[in-house]
């Protein structure tokens, strides 16, 4: 067992900080230190454009410029210790924040901002692949920017002129670390994603591990394999890659970095192979260290000769970054870091991200509040927003059911200003609503049940693509009840209340945040938090609109967000409705994102 890490308290002194000017002042928390090893890593994943930091949550309010400063100091500290530090990013850098989504074309500012960090291994996420123009920008901008470190082990790009399929970037990379001279073989994967745009090709990892280049790569004799992937740690793809490497290298340490599931997690594959995942939305900077790479460290690992893997999930909090580098607000920001912070401020201003559409009257949560319930963002959608925005001028009185997948919503709504930026945090997508007219009501209802529970030809596991990432690939330490959603929720709510109360008696003033449990224990988070309860959400929600006052309608229009189309058609078919894509028509002009912004302007007119 690993011992409990000692706690220290980070102290806030004056106010000349970096971060964005609108960012709230960070709050101190009891801290766990970083354990340095011979080889150390900083990891970001699923940043989704949040390079400006969290402007409504003080514990995640550092920006990408602060991360540039942090990495500079950590590199200096590594040099002083005579050890190595590598930076990793595992994709989904785009979609999810006004800084990326607020420009036309998208990402006008973020590519340059992100590119200011020097990263040693970087790969692609599914969000870089949904739209052809996103794929193209990744190829034309990000790949050349990280020419030496971009890895595309199972991803090809289709060149627009020739139609040729070429590797999106190098398949793997071999390099030697600066201070210790470790030989590293680095690979970079994406899970077996199949909704990618036509100018990209994702090869299933089962096939990639049979490729000649892969066999050659794993037959090299490195000191350590570095496997990065936009893959949840508990997904089968990492097991396939791990097994393939172990089939040739029973003994070489493997450091694995994953993402996609939006959780903090660590997974042990064997005594010499560990993986970490570092959350989402630039809330977390992951830390992994390995000691005893060539010799093993028998004092820590149960097997003599095994290296020691440690991990820490660093809150993206300036006070924590000061703490880990032993610096303060005057000594911490580097010139380069300040410049990047300025780039972000300038971009936010140019994009008018602080432009206010309205004022949220209360907090609305995705998973921190029970669904259905008055504090649930999904109930807000069902009861207030969808009935107002799902309107077709030619069918104003036709009864309809509006269906939206919960994964279409990306973030909580905080009480207070609802800005252009907020709109993209909640809904970065460009898709709108389509419909199938005059569906028998009972068929429509059965189809919705099937989308939530699974059915013939719609496996419950495939339907998880519809819900939020945290529900799709839950860590085994995030416990879900087998009971029905509502029973389970009631029970979890009671436990949460008791637990939180007890916790707060002994630990006053803790900020609510991550209390991670993983294969390495429960001391992974760098800052001690009070726990947040996680409530389950379904795959899809739905609103009945213009229903007769007395009883159910015979027929309804089934309206759905575009992402649902490949699921809704089979669900209707297996519920007794014979429809195909020819029956699908546009219901309302504009994207959900634009309709949401317009609704906020009309309805949330109160003062903040
Ligand atoms: C890909 O190409 C097919 C056939 O040309 C087309 O129907 C489809 O809409 C395209 N998909 C995307 C995502 O561009
Ligand atoms: C920051 O640290 C420097 C060097 O230790 C010290 O001179 C300075 O007074 C500190 N500043 C603050 C605001 O604590
Ligand atoms: C920061 O920006 C200034 C002004 O644009 C420039 O002169 C300087 O070289 C930059 N410094 C770094 C380290 O990027
Ligand atoms: C939103 O505003 C519109 C226009 O004023 C109004 O018709 C509608 O009832 C409002 N919706 C809600 C849920 O208050």
From TrEMBL:
Keywords: Signal
Record keyword Nucleus present: no
Signal peptide from the UniProt entry: 1-18
Domain Calcineurin-like phosphoesterase, chain residue ranges per copy: 40-263
BP terms from Gene Ontology: nucleotide catabolic process
Ranges where the Putative 5'-nucleotidase C-terminal domain occurs: 363-569
The keyword Signal is assigned to this record: yes
Protein name per Swiss-Prot or TrEMBL: Metallo-dependent phosphatase-like protein
Transmembrane segments: none
Organism domain of life: Eukaryota
Pfam family, one: Metallophos
Alphabetized GO MF terms: hydrolase activity
Any GO CC annotation of this UniProt entry: cytosol
Organism: Microdochium trichocladiopsis
């Amino acid at each position: 067992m690993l011992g409990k890490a000692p706690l220290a308290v980070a102290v806030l002194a004056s106010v000349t900080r970096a971060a964005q000017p609108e960012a709230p002042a960070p709050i101190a928390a009891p801290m766990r230190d970083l354990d340095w090893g011979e080889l150390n890593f900083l990891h970001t994943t699923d940043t989704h454009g949040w390079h400006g930091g969290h402007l409504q949550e003080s514990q995640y309010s550092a920006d990408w410029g602060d991360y540039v400063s942090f990495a500079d100091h950590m590199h200096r500290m590594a040099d002083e210790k005579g050890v190595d530090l590598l930076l990793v990013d595992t994709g989904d850098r785009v979609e999810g924040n006004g800084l990326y989504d607020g420009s036309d074309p998208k990402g006008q500012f973020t590519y340059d901002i992100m590119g200011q960090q020097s990263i040693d291994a970087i790969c692609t996420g599914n969000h870089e692949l949904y739209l052809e123009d996103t794929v193209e920008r990744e190829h034309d901008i990000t790949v050349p920017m990280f020419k030496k470190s971009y890895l595309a082990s199972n991803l090809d790009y289709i060149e627009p002129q020739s139609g040729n399929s070429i590797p999106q970037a190098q398949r793997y990379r071999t390099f030697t670390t600066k201070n210790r001279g470790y030989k590293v073989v680095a690979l970079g994967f994406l899970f077996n994603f199949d909704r990618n745009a036509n100018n990209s090709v994702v090869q299933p990892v089962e096939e990639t591990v049979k490729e000649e280049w892969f066999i050659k790569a794993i037959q090299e004799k490195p000191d350590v394999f570095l496997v990065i992937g936009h893959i949840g740690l508990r997904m089968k793809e990492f097991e396939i890659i791990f097994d393939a490497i172990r089939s040739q290298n029973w003994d070489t340490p493997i450091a694995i970095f994953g993402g996609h599931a939006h959780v903090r997690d660590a997974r042990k594959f064997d005594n010499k192979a560990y993986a970490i995942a570092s959350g989402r939305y630039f809330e977390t900077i992951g830390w992994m260290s390995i000691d005893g790479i060539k010799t093993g460290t028998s004092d820590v690992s149960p097997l003599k000769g095994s290296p020691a893997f440690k991990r820490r999930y660093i809150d993206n909090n300036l006070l924590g970054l000061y703490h880990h580098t032993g610096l303060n607000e005057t000594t911490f920001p580097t010139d380069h870091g300040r410049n990047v912070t300025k780039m972000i401020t300038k971009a936010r201003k140019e994009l008018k991200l602080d432009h206010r559409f309205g004022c949220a009257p209360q907090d609305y949560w995705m998973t921190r509040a029970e669904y259905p319930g008055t504090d649930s963002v999904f109930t807000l959608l069902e009861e207030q927003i969808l009935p107002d925005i799902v309107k077709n001028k030619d069918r104003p009185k036709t009864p309809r059911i509006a269906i939206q997948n919960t994964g279409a919503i990306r973030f909580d709504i905080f009480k207070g200003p609802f800005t252009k930026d907020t709109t993209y945090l909640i809904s970065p997508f460009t898709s709108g609503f389509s419909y199938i007219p005059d569906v028998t009501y009972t068929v429509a209802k059965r189809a919705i049940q099937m989308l939530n529970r699974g059915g013939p030809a719609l496996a419950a596991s495939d339907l998880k693509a519809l819900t939020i990432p945290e529900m799709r690939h839950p860590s085994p330490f995030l416990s879900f009840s087998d009971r029905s959603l509502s029973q389970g929720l009631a029970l979890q709510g009671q436990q949460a209340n008791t637990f939180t109360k007890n916790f707060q008696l002994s630990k006053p003033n803790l900020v609510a945040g991550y209390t991670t449990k993983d294969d390495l224990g429960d001391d992974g988070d760098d800052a001690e938090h009070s726990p947040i309860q996680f409530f389950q959400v379904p795959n899809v929600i739905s609103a009945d609109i213009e229903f007769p006052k007395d009883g159910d309608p015979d027929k309804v229009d089934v309206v759905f967000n575009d992402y649902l189309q490949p699921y809704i058609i089979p669900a209707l078919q297996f519920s007794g409705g014979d429809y195909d894509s020819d029956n699908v028509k546009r219901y309302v002009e504009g994207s959900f994102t634009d309709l949401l912004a317009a609704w906020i302007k009309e309805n949330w007119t109160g003062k903040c």
